[in-house]
Amino acid sequence: MGLLDGKNALIFGLANDRSIAWGITQAFKARGANIGISYAGEMLERRVRKLAQAVDCDFVEPCDVTRDEDIRLVADKAAAKFGQVDILVHSIGFANREELTGPYYNTSRAGFHLAMDISVYSFTALAQAFQPLFRPGSSLLTLTYYGAEKVAPGYNVMGVAKAALEASVRYLAFDLGPQGVRVNAISAGPIRTLAAAGVSRFKDMYRHFIKLAPLQQHVTIEDVGNTAVFLCSELAGRVTGEVLYVDSGYNIIGVPEPPECE
Ligand code: NAD
Ligand code: 0WE
User: Which residue, of 61, 164, 184, 206, has the greatest Cβ tally within 10 A?
Assistant: First the structure.
């Protein structure tokens, strides 16, 4: 008996075996869910299909979330394959690399729009397209980061996007609540995924993290997967519109311990 037995779970944002989406997929599979996977483009297809095999998933569909027709197509295919959907996970974020260095005020108009489109609007667009497929008791989940609330140097336009994403979680929770559909976010601590590779500000932040976090441990994709199981199961049946931290307690710290106390 698994917590998610027989539930149909669609996961958006799988790139490789380091993706947070992969931690969530594996945790869902282990609790008995049927998995459907969507990925961003041809470049990823081979890798994603191999991962899908490992979780007995034969629904593997491309979807560039900046394209309405891609979203429509994947929703139609999901309706044909699963009928109804119980869980939708949005694990997608993107900004042009140059927006993640230097001061935030240098953000370009086009860069701002792109980050907002991929990292924020896509969650709303998916909620819209899949709304007719959600059963009462369904749940939607997205991934956010502390830079939404407080400044994380270099996170820049992504911080602004995550703030809007967290607000979207609340508005979607309000809209979908009467239908019995819950909407939540996990705010994860820094994890070394593709989306973090080569960002110099990330590296420093990653190393510094365990010195400040109460649990003094890095966060893994397995940690996020386990919390995702909880949020998408009946155990969290009356939890909606929330941002739940999986960050070793980092966010509770106001003033770090001064060096001479250590
Ligand atoms: P990742 O690179 O594995 O995942 C990001 C995904 O976004 C990729 O699969 C990519 O293909 C997808 N994507 C980008 N543009 C897309 C588009 N136009 N259409 C469809 N998909 C698109 O990295 P990750 O760290 O697993 O990121 C997943 C989520 O977790 C993101 O929202 C990220 O902001 C968030 N997050 C990451 C961390 C971290 O430290 N890694 C911490 C907190 C939150
Ligand atoms: O949400 C994220 C990743 C965001 C991200 C990262 C990249 C790098 C490569 C979005 N778009 C891109 N585009 C690229 O071309 N995180 C929470 C991880 C992260 O990224 C940072 C961080 C942290 C933490 C970037 C700068 C500073 C801190």
Answer: 184
